[in-house]
Amino acid sequence: MGRAGTPVVTVPPLRVVVADDDGDIRLLVGIAVRKAGLDLVASAHDGDDAWALVIGMAPDLVVADVSMPGMTGLDLCRLVRAEPALSATRVVLLSAAVDDASRQAGLDAGATDYLIKPFSPRELADRLVQLATHIEARL
Amino acid sequence: MNIARIAGRLATEHPSALLKQSPTTLFVAVAAVIVLLAPQLVTSFVATVVGIAAIGIATVAAVLVTTRPELVRFALLVPAIDFVAIGFLRYGTGDSASIFSALLILPVIWFAAEEGREHIWFAFVGTAVVLLFPSVAGQSDSSTLSALSRAVFASAVFTVAAAVINELSRQARRRLHAVRSLAEERQSALETSERRAAELAAREAQLRGAQRLFQGLWGAVTQQAVIGTDVTGLIDAWNPGAVNMLRLTADQVEDKLHVDAFHLSGELEDRARELNYPAGATVLNPGFSALVEQARLGCAEVREWTYLRGDGTRLPVELSVTARLDDDGETVGYLFVAHDRTRAHEVAKLKDDFVGLISHELRTPLSSILGYLELMRDDDDDELTPTQLQYLGVAERNAHRLLTLVGDLLFTAQVESGKFNLETHMQSMAPIVSAAVDSAQPAAAKAGVNLTAQVGGDGLVRGDSVRLGQACDNLISNAIKFTPSGGNVTVATSFESNRVVVSVSDTGMGIASSELDKLFSRFFRATTATRNAVPGVGLGLTITKAIVTAHGGEMSVASEEGVGTKFSMALPAERVRV
Do B366 and A118 touch (CB under 8 A)? Predict the structure, then answer.
């Protein structure tokens, strides 16, 4: 299972939706999700598409880019947080912005975690494992 | 009467010795003719000839005294000789019966007219000698009591006459002096008046020149709005720049509108709140007062505001406000000079956009490159050959170089746009320096450079440990890059004068002294760097200096080409108490 370690997630794995306008990044995030032993249920190439998927599928986790055409990752995060039906859904934001203000804006929007690009797939997988463990512990 | 005419008058009022002697010479010449025509008048031929000859001598002396200024102090010798000469002439032509006795009046007048009462006595003595000498000497045939009495009486009359003449001369001189003083005063006043008139004319010309210059400048300033107001803010001056910027003519605003009418009320209220103006009527016009607060206190203020044009559109401006003072230094109004900041704001936005572009468009592909390279390296199912791993390492190293460059560009842009924030807390510098040295050891070993740390004095610095570490990393990696294999790089710390100094010295190729002042400029690369193909883009030192400056510190550099370089950063610090 690589350096992300052996997944500790039990069946059924947590369901994840990935949203990024860059196809290569979507694929990379998808690999990290699978390395973490999670279930990649859908991918979206923009914010609006992502919202439609999230509201329809109510996934356990959303990994979204901040800068996307149309609805941004921040907007998506706020919508998720404002939707009672998605109260259990956690959002991890990915951003190319390195400044602290951008990070704080992401956390203020309700993101559970905030990773700066370029990110290590290994580190992302580790974070997702930690997050999944945390979520399952609360179930 | 001008000074030249007065001078002419003075010349005749102070006649020359020759002029004074002229009547005596003339009358003695006439006497000589009379004696020649009537020889029976002569009682002593020798005395007569001596007398006439002596007058000749006196006349020659008068000529000399007149023509030789250095002899002027001997001028009174001339009438003295005259006395003697007339004495001989009188004696030779009948003594007391001589028809030439009256000639005595001429030297008497001369003496008497001289300044000073002592000359009366000179006249008396001269007269007495001439009149009494023959009687006293017994040479006269008329040495009788009556002749003696006549001589004494005549001497007394001459002396009194001399006294009268002397007094009249004295008064005349005094009047002349007074007149001359008045004339001089008048002339001086005239000259002063003429000089002042000339100065006034020159100043008027200067004033006209200054007015022309001011009018030219006033008309030429078309890109900045210059607005003058009285103390209440009522506009009384409106330049062409203001016309362009605010799209209203001078006629539409002067003496009609207040300057705060062109400001957003919200901005004025915010400023009034900043200044802690109390709510209510304690300030007559809070908006205008907020606008001129600093200028009213005597400080010129430059601040960004938003102008509201006559047509309702808005304009960002940088506004300088200064007080207008009268001759007594009292504020009589204010001057507002506004510079359009639209372009500057556009540039700032472009810069922000550029930063965003770098962030997203460069860092996102780098995410893919580095991420997939990592996946290849971590692929347990399909392990790579050593050669493939070597190629992968090259790709990863260069991707990280690119990432560092992007980070440096981003950081530089943040510094320039003022969005460079520090997360500061008090911390010791020694661990930061040690960590930087430790992390640079692999690179130093690879380059064959001996990297040593001499952590001596330490200090507590209020700073951002990440940024300070970045500054240390930059200096150390630079030193390693610029030092040939076998050289030394020494990192030292010391505490001096409430500052902790971190210095990085190398035995590298050094920097030309002519380039030292450009080292911290963006994208500057030293000649030694380009000549020796040392990799880099010239941002490291710019960033290092920005970090040090943001911490209130200073950077310095000393270098000698071919010998080495020493960079030092001095940061404000507190001594570490053990």
Answer: yes
Domain B425-575 has CATH 3.40.50.450: no
Q: Give the span between the Cα atoms of A34 and A125, in whole angstroms.
A: 8
The matching CATH number, chosen from 3.10.180.10, 3.90.660.20, 3.40.50.720, 3.30.450.20, for B221-340 is 3.30.450.20
Nearest beta carbon to residue A97 from set B359, B367, B375: B359
Query: Which domains does chain A possess?
Result: 11-128 (3.40.50.2300)
Q: What number of C-beta contacts closer than 8 Å exist between A and B?
A: 59
A69 touching B (Cβ < 8 Å): no
Q: Do A118 and B378 touch (CB under 8 A)?
A: no
Residues B423-446, mean pLDDT to the nearest whole number: 90
Q: Which residues, 6 or more positions from B483, have their beta carbon under 8 angstroms from its beta carbon?
A: B447, B449, B489, B506, B507, B508, B509, B564
pTM attached to this predicted model: 0.52
For A10, the 3-state DSSP assignment is coil
- Asked if ipTM goes beyond 0.90, one says no
Q: Are the Cβ atoms of A121 and B403 closer than 8 angstroms?
A: no
Alpha helices (H) along B417-485: 429-447, 465-481
Select from A24, A15, A10, A37 the least CA-distant residue to A89. Answer: A15
Neighbours of B77 (CB within 10 A): 16
